[in-house]
UniProtKB/TrEMBL annotation:
Name assigned to this protein: PEP-CTERM system associated protein
Alphabetical keyword list: Signal
Source organism of this protein record: Granulicella mallensis (strain ATCC BAA-1857 / DSM 23137 / MP5ACTX8)
Signal peptide: 1-31
Amino acid sequence: MNNQQHRRHSWRSLGGLSISLLALSSVAISAAQLPVIADTHSMPRVAEGSYYTMQWLEPSLSVSSGYDTAADDIPDASGGLVTVEGKLGVNFRHERSNLMLQHDGQVVDSIDTGIGVQQYQRTSLVFADRASRSTSWSFLAENGYGSDAARDVGNLNTATLNTVKVPDTNTVAFGNVTGNTLTDRALLAVDHQLTAVRTLSLGGDATFHHYFDQGVSDQRYSVNLGLRTDLRNDITVGVRAEGVRESYNHLNCTTASITAFADLSFNRDTLLQGGIGPILGSAECSGNYQYNVTLSKSTMRGTTVYLGSTRQVSDGFVNQSTWETANFGGVSLGQTRTALVNLDAGYAHYEIGNPTPANPNLHGYFVSGELRHRLSNDSELSLTARYFSRGPSPVELSRGVFLLTYRWAREQRPTRTFDSGGR
């Protein structure tokens, strides 16, 4: 893929399949590691009106054993733990359309703590279609249900900021919501290529959270319109307008923003991306401005380094916050085919519209280290150490998690082709 193609799509790895978000590159997809929109432009050609293809998305199963210093985010509730995680998905392609279904689940048993078994389940559907040579559209729907705190001991959740895959900053505050949570999300995105170098984008999404123990909910709705232009193979600029309506229990927020952004590529291995702009809204929610910036660099030996910072309207998942500011960085060292080292760290600050002593502004950080060793084409062992800290009181907590994990992931199966009988 050349630099121009790289900037037009936000990439994210999911089960070995490269998929893209048909929205502006300045958008950060956060919270629950959502799958993003399939790239229909890169699909293999299929005989028109005669066939469709099916492909399994790299099924996987992980079994972990370890130690937790604060199980279920309860101070001093330390003890051993066992986790099981699995993922299964399937992808259907027909002419210019693409349909992807995926489910992943996690079960955690905390030993000697009396907490019992916890679980978190997530199911997603993505449909993408090329209406014409110049217009494509995509739809995403996702449902998640289970214990928020259980995710601390799972795979490190990630988000896509610009085109860089980074740890989800909400990780620093996981478990702030006790008990089970329900998350539903729907997203629609449309891209229309005006010229060879200019693209118009239109999108909207709706997100719903419910917290069962507290008996409260929050909703978020947004629409956006943007224009981006490729000035050269290594420079893209654009502007994006967005309107957001959010409801946090008894607090309602309406905001409007305009963001100017740019993507700069240096020597094919270094990418600088960012955006900044004003944001206006009701007094409890307006933060005057928002920004995001990421710097990433890859080497021929497989090493990747990234740094980033962002300030944006929150989705309300953490403590029903209205604003979040985050800084993060990390490195992935892949010097050999059999070993990989990942180091990640992040800090986040969450602002509440009307903070109180019982519901204050929240801040926290985490550090995570992972050593992975490949045993075969289908299996690997990993050793993970992770530390979280958040505050202030009454939600102050420090938590350490240590895991030894065996993971099996079947290589992506060959594509199967079926006769659909024509139109």
